[in-house]
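Forum: Protein Structure Q&A
Topic: Joint prediction for protein chains with partners

I've read a bunch of threads here and the consensus seems to be that you should model interacting components together rather than docking separate models afterwards. I'd like to see that in practice. Below is the full input, 522 residues plus whatever partners are listed. Could one of the regulars post the assembled result?
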Amino acid sequence: MSALTFLIVAVIKIAVTLGVLLTVVAYTVWLERKVVGRMQNRWGPSRVGPFGLLQPLADGIKFLLKEDLTPPYVEKPLYLLAPCLSLIMALTSIAMIPIGPIIHLFGISTPVQITGVVNATGQSSDINVGILVILGITSLGVYGVALAGWSSNSKYSLLGSLRASAQMVSYEVSLGLSLVGVLLMSSTLSLRGIVHAQLGTWFGFIPQWFIFRGQFIAFFVYMMAAFAETNRIPFDMPEAETELVAGYHTEYSAMKFAMFFMAEYANMVTVACIASVMFLGGWSGPSLPFLPVAVQAFLPLLWFSAKIFFFLFLYIWIRGTLPRFRYDQLMAFGWKFLFPLALANVVVTAFFVAIRA
Amino acid sequence: MHLYLFLLFGAICAGGAVNLLIQRKAINSALSLIVVMGSLAVIYMMLGAEFVAVVQVIIYAGAIMVLFIFVIMLLNAGEEEPSKGSTVAKIVGIPGLFACVIVVVKLWLQQRPGERLIPIGAMYGPADQVGMMLFTKYLLAFEVTSILVLIAIMGAVVLARRSNS
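Posted by a regular:
Agreed with the consensus. Here's the joint model:
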């Protein structure tokens, strides 16, 4: 593959992935309003387009056209930097996610992953520390929240961002540790390698996903920590509207507020992607031989999207179900329950891996 | 290409370090330090040591500097008072620093003629090799460091409990 083709393919992959991600983000908001609405016996958005399907578009136009108010007492450079940081960090990590296997199109083969390439032997490979890169990028996302609260120069924002950064730093530990078990079992840090380690089946139909290979406790810990990382109910302390107006983005309006909003939903998608790659076998799934060949080619993408949709629905479902934690409960839960559980999982997994080796 | 990227990120790194020193506000200095850490990570990555680069980002930029920012936010540290520096230091300082660095590097290269700068992309440091080195060749240093960290953790626990009782 020449340098020019490589560049063109990379640009196309980035454009398509980004486009799909932003669409998913917009329609997750719609889905959330619709599903929570039905759970609370309301209709949800229903006026703009059929079933309110054009509501995200209308919201986007509203955000763009609203008055962009910058309070006079803010720390201007940091106030402007914070939403950009949040959104950039949220959107960048999708580049590491392996979405599908190699596709062959117009005589070019390339894996469905922005950072993936086909190497000399015809195998697909990606950045060999992929999962750590994602953890690094998401850990930088804390700065967006922290700076937003500090630069707004408002007590609600400051309290919200203090809570948010403390919570994100605390739960990052459990989140990272919950992934160690999977890394031990797959003995690679490359996300593509981790998916390849889960491609087989038992008896021809039970998939060898890590969640079925003894990592269900890790999966539970990961999901709990992920809810806290993305500041979702029941861990949405940072923006507890009954106490803090809107938390760290109280002083933001129009598109700058929308950037925080998009970052939150993009983070939800990323977290769902990592969960399905690490525990649910990424794009692997039952093969359906009775379907036509043209449809079969899209099966991996279909399975991957189905898993993402499951996680997004789970987020919304839990939001419609659980009340908010108290702040001390949140910290105690993170440090005294999830952290020891994740550590125990690492020790037990390491023990079994050592026995088998 | 690699050389230009190296020069670019080296310049960003040095610029961030200088900015760290001349900024009056604590939070701006802390942010400059994050820029320094980030560009260092990029340089590691260009050398071929992806694992070290990513660990640099996770630990320094993602954990330690977050705590710095956190403390600055909690204490709401304001602007610092500029001290009255001497004129001699201002005039002689920067050329003197450059001269010192050049002399040290020159001497170092003369003392060890076999060692040269590592060419870009030549380092090969995947995670498993780093781990192997830590648990065989550098085992003692690794374990001693872990004891040091343990002592720090215990100290933190003691300090945190004292205010309670």
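Residues 126-165 of chain B form one domain.
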